[in-house]
Amino acid sequence: MAVGEELPLILLAEDNPNNVFTITSYLEAKGYRLMVAGDGQEALEYARSHHPQLILMDIQMPGMDGLTAIATLRNDPMFQELPIIALTALAMDGDREKCLEAGMNDYLTKPVNAQALEQMLEQWLLQEDLPRANQQDTPERQPEPPVIFNVQDLLDRCGQDQA
Ligand code: MN
Fold this sequence. Notes:
Helix 3 (66-74) links the parallel strand 3 and strand 4. The protein has helices at 17-29, 40-50, 66-74, 93-102, 114-128, 151-162, and strands spanning 9-13, 33-37, 54-58, 84-88, 106-109. Strands 2-1-3-4-5 form a five-stranded parallel β-sheet, with helices on both faces. 43% of the residues lie in helices and 15% in strands. Manganese (II) ion binds at residues 15-16, 58, 60-61.
């Protein structure tokens, strides 16, 4: 990251204080700017008001849950390409599919591993650096669907986490 360049803003939506503490400590140590939302509704408000470069979205939250929040964001053209990483304790195949269907780009299983989180952020923030401002001038570059790529990689990684 170039000196003077504004640091990426990460929006963390997570209701569990222990997870908030762990993840914020790590991200702040890495120099990311961070906002924390306690539920899905708050996540929507912060996304709209502060335009984060990436969202880490807990799935199980009181009030509006993460799946609903992700699906709501994806229905808004402004957020169709925003990287959204789900944080989930869910391990069932059906739940994974629900996350993909809701529009997440990728996910991390909790408790979140610091190295996995770092790799995830670097991967998705790097994509954010693509020259998307020129998209309208380069018609050969079609908008990509926000989800359903990297699925096999997800499944492989999930298998490792469960081991
Ligand atoms: Mn939760």
